[in-house]
Amino acid sequence: MAGIALGVLALVLVMSVMDGFEGILKQRILGAVPHVLIKPISATSATLDVQQFNDMIQNAEFKQDIIQVLPLVQSVAIMQLPSDLKGVMAQGISDDKSIPLGVLNSLSKSQYSTTPDVSSAASWSRFMDSKYGIIVGQYLAMEYGLAVGDKIRLMISGTSHYTPIGRMPSQRTFTIVDMFHTESEIDEQLVFVRSQDLNRLMRKSPADNEGIRLVLNDAFLANEIAQQITEYFPESDYKIENWHDTHGKLFDAVKMEKTMMWFMLSLIICVAAFNIVSALVMMVTKKQNEVAILKTLGMTPNTISNIFIVQGAYNGVFGALLGGSVGAILTLNLNGFMAATGLNFLGVAGIGLPIEFSWLKLTYIVSLAIIMALLASIYPAKKAAQLMPADVLRYE
Length: 396
Known about the structure:
The chain has 396 residues and is an alpha+beta fold. The protein is built from 14 helices and ten strands.
């Protein structure tokens, strides 16, 4: 009983923390990157804008899963810093309505920002009013000692022009207007500029775009929605990508880790269930005289079997409910308990563990423990039901 309770408690606690870490990764990384990209394959393909896309999918079932449709203006760029060169992905923002929701409220939170008390909306407005302004991540600023107001040069290797000293990549000096803060590797890889400025740098029309990007209500539906979009935008004319192509390996690793943790901690419950088997087998051996006498008095094998199944089920049900209750209480109050006792598993003062508790998963875990306890009771119960009174009582 104690083994089952301990196994359920450990499984509830660890899976809640793992779900919390996955949720943090989903929020910080997938909030800043495009969930689905739709781009024309060649110049002969039809151009694509936001209004055209909305008109084409207005009757689609997956439309309710899309929360933002934004024009796509982006390019791989080289950032020339005071002491180094850094490869980044430059994304264009055309207006206040084209800001991805994942980074909408991420400005003015950095300790390196000179205007930490200004609201995020005001920061974006100031950015949109700044010609050749750029927003960089706080980790990038931390690594290279950048601050708001510094000048950095952005170069696009895909476009170039002739100069007196030869062919040179298209480049322009930008001024850091603000910094965004997602607390992930995205802070070092992504920069935001105005779409018209990025288009000029790429030798395109200021209002041009290379496709559209979709922000989904649930980023993990990206593969499914990308498949459904092909019905409206044939793969022969449009290239459809999603975040799995760039960040899928990270989340696949997290998913595999969760699966392995689930499997290994479930073994604790399996060991406890095996203990139920051994305990009931010993009980059958010890009580075989009593079982034989009950059978001679008319008790049926099914009744004998049910007695031992109920005994095993009692251990499983009570242990699973006890472990589930203690696990839920401990999980919901884990950070408070850590703060009260001075424990800090992350090594950073004031930061607790990310926890995402699910009553549905708690129900699954408790049900799993109960089912395993019932299955463990079947073999000893059958052994008790198969006892022959004549063999047991022959020498009594």
